Amino acid sequence: MNKKGFIFDLDGVIVDTAKYHFLAWQKLAKGLDIDFTEEENEQLKGVSRVRSLEKILAWGNKTISQELFNDLMGKKNEEYLNYIAEMDENEILPDVPRVLNTLKENKQPISLGSASKNARTILERVNLMSNFDAIVDGNDVTKAKPDPEVFLIAAKELNIKPEDCIVFEDSVAGVTAANTANMISIGIGSKDVLGHADYIFNDFTEISDDFIKSLIEN
Ligand code: B16
Ligand code: MG
What we know:
By secondary structure, the protein is an alpha/beta fold. The protein has nine helices and six strands; from the N terminus they run βαααααβαβαβαββα. α1 (18-31) packs across α4. It folds into two domains: 5-15 and 89-217, HAD superfamily/HAD-like (Rossmann fold), CATH 3.40.50.1000; 18-84, DNA polymerase, domain 1 (Orthogonal Bundle). A six-stranded parallel sheet has the order 3-2-1-4-5-6. The radius of gyration is 17 Å and the shape is globular. The site of magnesium ion has 9 residues, from loops.
């Protein structure tokens, strides 16, 4: 049987932690007198913690000391950790377990490819650790999405060529990273946001087992 590398982003693909990132950043931004829109928040999806704060400060035209910057990063993460501490299996997005099972039944290698430094904690909370042959996250990369580094490391760990990898992504930056890595990109979300993906679905309920099998075979 053909072997492809299936790489899953975490936030917004397996679980909806994007909403917790948004809440945590929004609280912090308010404290700095910065307001940002839902549309601007799209630009923070898949983007590293450092880069996210840089963007928020730029939107508010604020410059701060390195010390305060580090302090704010710590505060944001504390806030975010409070949210994820409450997570359990109920937060896994619909039909993600079915797709993971189909891949397992067809003996396909699976990796996580997330920008988050909290990825392992989240996978443990929702009890999905054992589904992954490799986990590549924000602790393993030096360059954040849209740089393809995270996905290229995942391909290497799975021992599959980049052009034989398929990436599930909800973010603009992540789809760009997958395309740059020469992988097939599957956007999970709206066509208006992820128009540059090879395929786009609103969520995993729209992804049939037959479609997964066609990805394996072609
Ligand atoms: P952390 P993903 C990304 O995860 C999030 O989409 C992004 O909003 C966040 O800033 C980034 O992880 C870093 O997360 O602060 O937990 O290290 O979508 O790549 O799984
Ligand atoms: Mg994401």
